[in-house]
Amino acid sequence: MNYLPGTASLVEEIDKKLLVVLRDGRTLIGYLRTIDQFANLVLHRTIERIHVGKKYGDIPRGIFIVRGENVVLLGEVDLENEDKLPLEQVNIDTILELQREQQVERELEQDRKKKAMAERGIHVDQAIDDF
Amino acid sequence: MKIVDGMVEGTRGRGGRRISWVKNVKDSTGMKISECCEILLERERCICGTLHSVDQFLNIKLTDINVTDPEKYPHMLSVKTCFIRGSVVRYVQLPADECDTQLLQDATRKEAAQNKQR
């Protein structure tokens, strides 16, 4: 066997630029410095990347110690093709504003759905509240 | 959060109502259950790739990955190989035509028989 399975395989990723997706949906990009058997991670020179549609923004964050249970996936960033993505970088304020707009839109969408369901006699929250 | 901290301090007062788990979730998230579900579904993602390695916790390493819906997950475009923590895996789907079910069945039966003998 010339490879390590499971969390041990992360040894190969040390000191590389990694993209980490957390359970709450956040995306961090940084250099992996240390790992352990739980996939607890130490990320150096980390940025948080926010995507909205085809636009993205980076917020510099510094050093992270990520508890393993919050990690969904991590992958090596392809440095060669990093700049060739069909995405556009915008500044922090713009992306935060876009994110807020997206959030509002989602809430409206949810309300619409709920209304449509209610018209057809389905009350999701009430049904669960009953007990 | 209340839910993960374990025991709730004190006791329920005489004749006090039991608080359902759902109520706890709602109190600590400040959201309705349907909204929580919505978020959960939104976070769901599908990744296809070639299996590089897997361990006893179902930690999975994939190479040559493809995200089924790149518009929804634009950050995955720059990633070619990835490590997925086993605890977040819901299911693994094998391509049906590359999976010899007959062979698998025989193998499991053989192993079961061996375990019986021991």
Please tag this protein with its features.
A: 131 residues, alpha+beta, 2 helices, 6 strands, 37% strand, B: 118 residues, SH3 type barrels, 3-stranded antiparallel sheet, 3 strands
List the helices and strands and how they pair.
The complex is a heterodimer of chains A (131) and B (118).
Chain A: E1 17-22, E2 27-35, E3 41-52, E4 55-66, E5 71-77, E6 88-89, H1 92-119, H2 124-129
Chain B: H1 21-29, H2 33-43, E1 47-54, E2 60-67, E3 79-84, H3 101-117
Antiparallel strand pairs in B: 1-2, 2-3
Structure write-up:
Chain B: Belongs to the snRNP Sm proteins family. Chain B: Keywords: mRNA processing, mRNA splicing, Nucleus, Ribonucleoprotein, RNA-binding, Spliceosome. The complex is a heterodimer of chains A (131) and B (118). Helix content of chain A is 26%, strand content 37%. In chain A, a hairpin with a 2-residue loop joins strand 3 and strand 4 (55-66). A 6-stranded mixed beta sheet of chain A has the order 5-1-2-3-4-6. With 131 residues, chain A is of the alpha+beta class. Chain A has one domain: Roll (SH3 type barrels), CATH 2.30.30.100. With 118 residues, chain B is α+β, with helices and mostly antiparallel strands. Chain B has one domain (26-117): SH3 type barrels. A 3-stranded antiparallel beta sheet of chain B has the order 1-2-3, with no helix packed on it. In chain B, a hairpin with a 5-residue loop joins strand 1 (47-54) and strand 2 (60-67). The longest helix of chain B has 17 residues, at 101-117. The model of chain B has no long low-confidence stretch (mean pLDDT 81). Chains A and B meet through strand 5 and helix 2 of A and helix 2, strand 1 and strand 3 of B.
